[in-house]
């Protein structure tokens, strides 16, 4: 059989064709250590995407590996009808990180599962059915989450499942109609840029319109939002938006679910949770990705009152909260603390933004640099406009960056945003190397 050392051999007919491959010429990854990845031939890559914001403390971090090894020799699986000590130790530690009354945990296996369960809890608790998420959002992939996820490129061309509505995206760069001031404009001239775009009030008015005019009862079960939109390209909301949205939703009978799948675990630098940067305490928090550093683990954390509303039905999940995942989750929290990775995220993020803004002033292809901590986006545009640079051009730049030894993410409505979300252990030299490579790649592309 094939040795699978040559990337040309990996075009397998046995992998579903809808599975997306980020590079035209794929790479075959073989080994990882902290912020570094190695392909089957030993070529080294700086990993600035962390398996999509998932490798929080570093690939194969020795402390996490030994926690996993130790537990794997003791007990792998119980299922949630039995208990084991690791799960108690873990939920104690996890809830110590949560503010307010957010002290009750469901352990699950993926972000999609967590958000699906949060939808159910919101409906059980409020007695309402309608759920609102934001345009451009990604909250997971399942037949019902085809409704919660609003991002068009991940939605099958089927009707939005009943009961899901999408509110206008509060995007200070692109504006209320998703692209005023550029060729994407849906309703040219209908927004007073830039005042409307940077003020949260206009978006709250539109959210109120949606509640009043699109939901017959005016009652809603939940409002879902990330603290900074991830897949949509590090979109940050106007100041005060989430706080006002939570109050408005509450007035209409609903609760606020914070999707911290990408923004949690210190990633945004200033705070452990992204929502803390908005001065809000959600009713439910969903988390995944960085929680397990790559091991399948996710959670829904809520209040006792909300969890109690779920008591009408027994909850069952075969793998949720298994001993291996609980051991890994606890080790990840310990490493985050011991190595002060939230602080590192803050400092490296600030340094990154400062360097990227300098790069922006040298290259008019860079239309925006945004984000917080180690959750950053670089938006590519047609120079002098806000029109997204065509996907094929961004792909060229992206491929050049890979060829020079850096793996970086893609995202945004038009797939024209490069996303930087590395393991939180990166250092200043990695930032300098990245800036050097980005500069070179843009020059090579524009030549
Ligand atoms: N929420 C957000 C914000 C995400 O970015 C993702 C994954 N990209 C999910 C939920 C779904 O997570 P999973 O792929 O683990 O199901």
From TrEMBL:
This protein's UniProt keywords: Aminotransferase, Mitochondrion, Pyridoxal phosphate, Transferase, Transit peptide
Molecular-function GO terms, alphabetical: (R)-3-amino-2-methylpropionate-pyruvate transaminase activity; alanine-glyoxylate transaminase activity; beta-alanine:pyruvate transaminase activity; pyridoxal phosphate binding
EC number: 2.6.1.18, 2.6.1.40, 2.6.1.44
SUPFAM superfamilies: PLP-dependent transferases
Catalytic function, reaction form: L-ornithine + pyruvate = 5-amino-2-oxopentanoate + L-alanine; 2-oxobutanoate + L-alanine = (2S)-2-aminobutanoate + pyruvate; N(omega)-methyl-L-arginine + glyoxylate = 5-(3-methylguanidino)-2-oxopentanoate + glycine; N(omega),N('omega)-dimethyl-L-arginine + glyoxylate = 5-(3,3'-dimethylguanidino)-2-oxopentanoate + glycine
Keyword match Phosphoprotein: no
Chief place of localization: mitochondrion
Keyword check for Nucleus: no
Pfam family, one: Aminotran_3
GO CC, alphabetical: mitochondrion
Cofactor (UniProt): pyridoxal 5'-phosphate
GO BP terms, alphabetized: glyoxylate catabolic process; L-alanine catabolic process, by transamination
Cell compartments where the protein resides: Mitochondrion
Function (record text): Multifunctional aminotransferase with a broad substrate specificity. Catalyzes the conversion of glyoxylate to glycine using alanine as the amino donor. Catalyzes metabolism of not L- but the D-isomer of D-beta-aminoisobutyric acid to generate 2-methyl-3-oxopropanoate and alanine. Catalyzes the transfer of the amino group from beta-alanine to pyruvate to yield L-alanine and 3-oxopropanoate. Can metabolize NG-monomethyl-L-arginine (NMMA), asymmetric NG,NG-dimethyl-L-arginine (ADMA) and symmetric NG,N'G-dimethyl-L-arginine (SDMA).
Assembly and binders: Homotetramer.
Annotated family: Belongs to the class-III pyridoxal-phosphate-dependent aminotransferase family.
Protein name, per record: Alanine--glyoxylate aminotransferase 2, mitochondrial
Organism: Plutella xylostella (Diamondback moth)
């Amino acid at each position: 059989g094939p040795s699978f050392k040559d990337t040309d051999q990996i075009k397998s007919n046995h992998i579903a064709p809808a599975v997306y491959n980020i590079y035209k010429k794929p790479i075959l990854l073989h080994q990882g250590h902290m912020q570094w990845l190695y392909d089957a031939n030993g070529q080294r890559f700086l990993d600035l995407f962390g398996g999509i914001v998932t490798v929080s403390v570093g690939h194969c971090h020795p402390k996490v590996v030994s926690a996993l090894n130790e537990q794997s020799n003791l007990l792998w699986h119980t299922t949630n009808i039995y208990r084991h000590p690791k799960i108690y130790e873990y939920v104690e530690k996890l809830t110590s990180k949560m503010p307010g009354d957010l002290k009750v945990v469901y352990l699950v296996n993926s972000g999609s599962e967590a958000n699906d369960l949060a939808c159910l809890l919101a409906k059980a608790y409020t007695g309402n059915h309608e759920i609102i998420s934001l345009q451009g959002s990604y909250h997971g992939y399942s037949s019902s989450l085809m409704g919660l996820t609003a991002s068009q490129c991940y939605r099958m061309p089927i009707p939005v499942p009943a009961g899901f509505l999408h509110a206008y995206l509060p995007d200070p760069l692109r504006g209320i109609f998703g692209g005023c001031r550029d060729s994407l404009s849906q309703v040219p001239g209908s927004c007073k840029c830039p005042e409307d775009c940077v003020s949260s009030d206009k978006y709250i008015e539109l959210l109120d319109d949606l509640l009043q005019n699109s939901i017959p009862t005016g009652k809603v079960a939940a409002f879902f939002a990330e603290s900074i939109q991830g897949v949509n390209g590090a979109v940050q909301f106007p100041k005060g938006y989430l706080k006002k949205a939570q109050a408005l939703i509450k007035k209409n009978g609903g609760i606020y679910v914070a999707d911290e799948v990408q923004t949690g675990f210190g990633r945004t630098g200033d705070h452990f949770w992204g929502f803390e940067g908005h001065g809000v305490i959600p009713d439910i928090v969903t988390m995944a990705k960085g929680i397990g550093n790559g091991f399948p683990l996710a959670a829904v954390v809520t209040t006792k009152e909300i969890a109690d509303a779920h008591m009408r039905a027994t909850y069952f999940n075969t793998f949720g909260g298994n001993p291996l995942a609980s051991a890994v989750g606890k080790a990840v929290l310990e490493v985050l603390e011991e190595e002060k990775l939230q602080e590192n995220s803050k400092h490296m993020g600030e340094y990154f933004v400062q360097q990227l803004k300098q790069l922006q002033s040298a290259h008019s292809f860079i239309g925006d640099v945004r984000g917080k901590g180690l959750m950053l986006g670089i938006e590519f545009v047609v120079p002098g406009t806000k029109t997204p640079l065509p996907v094929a051009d961004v792909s060229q730049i992206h491929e050049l960056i890979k060829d020079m030894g850096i793996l970086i993410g893609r995202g945004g409505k038009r797939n024209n945003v490069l996303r930087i979300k590395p393991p939180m252990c990166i250092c200043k030299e990695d930032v300098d190397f990245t800036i050097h490579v980005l500069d070179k790649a843009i020059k090579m592309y524009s030549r």
